[in-house]
Structure formats: structure tokens, C-alpha cells
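Need the bound structure for F0G, inputs here:
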Amino acid sequence: MTKYYAEPFKIKMVEPIKILTKEERIEKIKNANYNVFSLDSDDVYIDLLTDSGTGAMSANQWAGIMVGDEAYSGSRSYKNLMISAKDIFGYEYFQPVHQGRAAEKVVMPIFLKEGKVAISNMHFDTTRAHVELAGARAIDCVIKEALDTVNYHPFKGNMDNERLEKLIQEYGAENVGMIIITVTNNSAGGQPVSMENIKQTSEIAKKYDIPVCIDAARYAENAYFIKMREEGFADKSIKDIAKEMFSYADVFTMSAKKDAIINMGGLIGVKNDKDLYETVKARTIPYEGFVSYGGLSGRDIEAMAIGLQEGTDFDYLQYRIGQMEYLAGKLDEAGIAYQSPVGGHAVFLDAKHLLPHIPYYEFPAQALAIELYIEAGIRSCDIGSYMMGNDPDTGEQIESEFEFTRLAVPRRVYTQSHLDVIVEALKAIKERRDSLKGYRITWEPKVLRHFTSKLEPIK
Ligand code: F0G
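Answer from helper R.:
Posting the output first, comments after.
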């Protein structure tokens, strides 16, 4: 029996969701050209497209919304955010921005320009984009265990520190603009990074005088995994673990739409470099707005200050990660493969394993996402060859290392019964998997095609 940690909250407000018939869903996905991003959210029953900005705020956060201070400068809500952030991260300076990629837009060009590289355990798409927009190149350096979806490793998100040092020597330390540690490692399946690994990366960076930036979107979930899996941390609080994690970096960029459980917001942290903070401020003002609001309303900043604290609550995190573990346990019973052990914010289904008869160029992970919608109105997304796109030089379809269908679970939104619906749908699909067909693209844009391209089933 898979344990389910019951919700450490009760529900005060509900949002009705519609259940269409299967016939209606077949029609809707066809009209959406078999692209899940083109579906109306009203036609989705369980929305697992992302865990970003889709969480449910608490009564306290909503109360914060009402008392948010909308002053242009020096607002009370800004001060509350500074107090809350300092308590968790232990840094001297913080700068709110409107979301994670805004933080990247402000920070990356400070360290990167043409001729430089950024090395990361894995760059998230927008992080990679901002590295490249700054003129630099992004290199992924995750441990090889991350590529093995079956065998257990407690920290599949880790940096390959041996390779990191080789890369630094190969490119020359002066050409490595920054090292980015993404916690948890979203692209590898929401996989955690161990404290020991973060510390080692930081030591290597120090040796070569390279700044370390943490991409902190899911830092609290990462701290939870460290507490549960790494020796010496069982008795430490989530906040103490977070503080230690951040002590090994110089700066962080954060999407607050994840672990701070707000619908919009981001944050930059600077450990103690006053000059760097001055540069961050100077870059924020033209892009995001004045220092004390950074592209957000005062009420959003108030909700972030409260959400940062709630996101580090152990009972909440146990329930939260427990939802992924519950889903994973049920999938084990059903013999359905996923990136294992399951990560912090999502289950990454291994579509290559479930649909071995669909080749990468017919997009098995996209086929599974479409089938999940048809079967039960569940919206997920492809993280595989369909998302990867074509080689810019040859125009040929790239074969992705993984064919994942990501089930990203919003925070505090769905119940155990919703999770059971997901498992039942997957079991039903497994029964008739041989009948599933691949897809072909009938129209695609030049970049980031998965958001807007059109597809059709292969007859
Ligand atoms: N870094 C990581 C690791 C992320 O997962 C994301 C967003 C960002 C940065 C950018 O933050 O969206 O606030 O601008 N990830 C979302 C996802 C979109 O669905 O995984 P943002």
C-alpha cells in the first residue's frame, strides 16, 4: 500500500471544474491541432501542464493581498519581503522581479557575454535562453546517473563535478562566466541536488574564481530531499538546510511561482557583494520597475513574503512530495515506468518505455499526452523529441535522450482522488497501448515549436 500524507490544510474555497465526455474531448483536441497548449483550460479536468504559478494561496496569503502596500517606493510589503527572505536565505540583498526569467534577464548579462560559457547541472529552457541572449553558450553537466531512468540514485540532479573541472580547464577559467546550480534539477525530472554536491561545486568554483548562481525555483523541495536522504541532515530544519545550500553560492535567481506558492513573482538574491547588488538594482529599474516593487504589485510582494515561509513548512513539504511518491507507488504497482526515484514537483513518465512501437520522430511522449487528455481530460506535456525540435544546422529532427510526458502537480490544488484518476487513466492507456499511433507536425514555427505547432495523427 502506498502511503498518502493527508493534506495539512482544509478547503475554504473551491473552483468548479468541468468534465467533458470522451467524444467532446476527442473533438476538442482535434480542434486544438493535437497541441495541448492550444486547449482552453475550461476544457481540461486535471491540469498538470505546469506547477508554476498554478498553486493555491493560503487564507493568510489572501489576507496579505488585502493589506499589500502599493506605495511606489519604500513600501511596507517590500520591507516584509526583505525580512522573510533574509530569514530563509541568509543573504544581505534581495531584489523582487516579476518572475524567474526576469531575474535571469537582469542577472545573466552581468556575468556573461560573447566568448563566455555558463556551466550548469542543467539549464532550464529560459535560463539557457538568457545565457544565449547574453551572447554566451550554455553547457549542461549533470551526472550520468540522471540519464538512467530505472536505477536508484538519491540525487540524480547532481552536477558531475569531475567533468565540471575538466570543462573549466578546457574552456579556460577566465571564459567560464558563471556556474549555475538548478535546484531541484527540473529538466532531469525534478531531481534533487545533494548538499555535498553543492559544496563541492562551490569549492571548485572558488578555486577558479568563478561566481556561483543558484537557480532556486524549487529550493524548498530540494531542502526536503536533503533532509530525508542525506546523512547528517535528518534533524535539521528546512530553513537551516536552505541557508546552508545558499551559503555556497554568490547570487540566486528565483521563480517565486513554485516554492513561494504565488501566482506571479520572482526574486534575486545577492549574498554580500554590495557592488553586484548596485548593478542588479541599476538593471532592474529599466526592465522591471523601481527597486521596491520590481514589476509586481505591493499585494503580490506581500503574498510572496508569506508564501516563502509557508513553502518551507515541513508538514506541507511532506504532503507535497508525498503526492509525487503516492503517484509513483501506484505507477510501480501498474508497471508504468517513469524517471525514478520520482522528483519533487512532477512525475516524468517514460513514454519510450510505454510506447516502444512509436519512434522518436513520431513523438511518443506527445502521443501519450494527447491520449491522457482523451482518456480523462488530463493535461500534461511532452519533454522529449517533440519539444527538442530540429537541428538548426541540418534541419533534421533531433532525437532526445528522453521521451518524457511530464505530469507537473500544482501545489495544494488536487486531492488524492484526483491522483487516482490519473493512475486509472494511465492503466487504461497501458491496456490499449498497442493501438496508439504517433503524430506528425503539419506546421511549426522556427523556435520553441512545442507551444504553437500543429499536428495530426499518423494513420
Ligand atoms: N528556472 C527553473 C528551474 C524553472 O523551472 C523555471 C520555470 C524558470 C527558471 C523560469 O521561471 O517561469 O517564473 O519565468 N519553469 C516552469 C515549468 C515554467 O513549467 O517548469 P518563470
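Comments: The radius of gyration is 22 Å. The chain has two domains: 22-51+313-457, 59-310.
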